[in-house]
Amino acid sequence: MEYKKKKLISILKQYDNLIVAFSGGVDSTFLLKVAYEILKENVIAVTARSPVHPERETDFATEFAKNLGIKHIVIKSKEMGQADFVANTKYRCYVCKKLLAQDLIKLASDMGIKNIAHGANMDDLDDFRPGFKAAEEMGIVSPLVDAGMTKKDIRMLSKEIGIVTWDKPSMACLASRIPYGTPITGETLNMIDRAEEFILSIGFIPCRVRYHNEVARLEVSPGDFERLFDEKTRIAIISKLKEIGFLYISLDLEGYIQGSMNRSI
Known about the structure:
Blueprint: H1 2-12, E1 18-21, H2 26-39, E2 43-49, H3 55-68, E3 71-76, H4 83-86, H5 92-111, E4 116-117, H6 130-137, H7 143-146, H8 151-160, H9 186-201, E5 207-212, E6 215-220, H10 225-228, H11 231-244, E7 248-251
Helix pairs in contact: 5-6, 9-11
């Protein structure tokens, strides 16, 4: 692992300046922190504000960059205005990432910055990730992949250097909770966001609320099943999710599985 860290540092030292696409997740936070230690004021964090990302994640990204003194720019993303995205085909991530890359490239050009990096890691190569393909096509670099780093490496190194996100649950965009082929709407994203925020607030970490029209399918760790079925907790979840707009609330007996919606493809 130490070899991978040294390789990452060597890669980052090749850049005169750098924009880091910064979501506030485990990977991009680690990349930003290491890049800042090397490039100082020559690294800029850019976060996309969008209905597909919980506002709490944008708030975290803003606070993290501010605390380190890193220049941070928040841009408004455009994917909700794209028919190819809201139709929710299996290539929606490709559409979204390409739009973001276009915005980042323009911003970089305006600021005289040559390189743009995102926080993809080696594990991303093992799943269906059309967004990674879009980033490659647009010339976005992936230093963590080039250094051979896995999610486990990133978590361990984040802990070692004191980054608060070292044990933060993985966070995909809210659109990933919606089955392919079901159109993405602002109302649906808001329902998912509110439901997950509530369930997280009562201590179920990680969790996912998968959207199936009037049905909310909850994914939590199997170790949390007993606590979820506590009468007070169960009633609180049912009441809140019905208030949000779901008619039926179900529990996935397999528990939380990252990327479970990709089974359909």
